[in-house]
Amino acid sequence: MTADRQQLRRLVRPNIRNLEPYSCARETVQKGILLDANESPYPLRRHGTLVNRYPDPYQRELRGALAENLGVDPGNVLAGSGSDETLDWIFKVFCDSRKDSVAVAHPTYGMYQVMARIFDVPVFEFELNQDFEFESDRFLRVVPDNVNVLFLCSPNNPTGNLLNRDEIRNVLSNWDRIVIVDEAYLEFSGGESMLHELNEFPNLIVMRTFSKAFGRAGLRLGYVIADPVFIDYFVRVKAPYNLNTMTQLEGVEALSSPEQGGRIEQILNERERVMKGLKSIPGVSAVFPSDANFLLFRTSGTEAVCGKLLSEGIVVRNRSSLPGLKGCIRVTIGTAEENSLFLERLRHHLEAQNDG
Ligand SMILES: Cc1ncc(COP(=O)(O)O)c(C=O)c1O
User: Fold this and answer.
1) pTM check: above 0.70
2) Strand bridging mode 328-332 / 317-318
3) What's the CA-to-centroid distance between 83 and ligand 1, angstroms?
4) 245-256 and 60-70 are packed helices; what angle lies between their axes, rounded to 10 degrees?
5) Tens of pLDDT along 310-354?
6) Please, what CATH class does the domain formed by 5-256 belong to?
7) Ligand 1 pocket by C-beta < 6 Å: which residues?
8) How large is the angle between the packed helices 336-355 and 302-311, nearest 10 degrees?
9) Quick one: fold of 264-355?
10) What percent of the chain is helix, strand and coil (3-state, nearest 5)?
11) Domain spans of the chain?
């Protein structure tokens, strides 16, 4: 039962389907005697880029570069101020708080739930199994009929594992609603993106970001890859000039540089070393396999341990309160020096805890 486009269109809120979008000045004409947008006519440059003019609302150059890089059409991609902005579009397009709800596969990235609260959309909480795997058949048996969108994160934050591709394919082919696959950490996994399944499954929307492997979290640049039908609706609901001119150019540049910026290999080597280091510390009862740039491990007295590390300037994330993650801490892979210090201080605090 692969979802067809006509059917999927019906998932779009009627007011968005019928929306006449705001028509902005830089849509078609970007050069000439520009007296149409109440901008300043006087050239002002920042880092070599003209900023007195509004940016391209359609992000033509950036979307062209992304499309080439990903092997899709420019009509399949749209960029936002971080992938967090793209979540905003997803809720605006698909979720009517009076009748729809979304499904979130827990434990996972907290923003899906926060966005649902902002939009007042109920959340169907579906738990990953004890290996943090998504069980599609179980999901298909229990998912309520008013769920329009399922959020999956692969590799998953904070558990670190890449979700099984066949499970994602199964839900895509047997559920005629939208499946979001957030691939923020994909580049650290060595796995293949789900975006290659887009032709087969128009109900798939993939989220990616420049914040992790591209090392550019401060730029705020993320994007979605989806069927052009949905990209068209996202264009309608986004702010016309959502990405500034410099960020658009930085994105193009990042894609053309052979070193992505995030030093993936270095991080993967360090991940291996931190993994070994954690396993050798008495008091660390589990270190979970990771396909991302962080590790999740289990210990006791997490609050006290995190507090002591924090007092020494080492900031990690206590994930103990999430379902299935009692006693779990998430640590991002830092530089070699940072990782060594973290391991040394953690060992110290856990030994003191065991002695005491
Ligand atoms: C799974 C996941 N998706 C998205 C984001 C946010 O990405 P961006 O910086 O592009 O908004 C994060 C940030 O930590 C994340 O963990």
Assistant:
1) yes
2) antiparallel
3) 6
4) 20
5) 999 999 999 999 999 999 999 999 999 999 999 999 999 999 987
6) alpha beta
7) 82-84, 109, 153, 157, 182, 184, 209, 211, 217, 222
8) 130
9) Aspartate Aminotransferase, domain 1 (3.90.1150)
10) 40, 15, 45
11) 5-256, 264-355
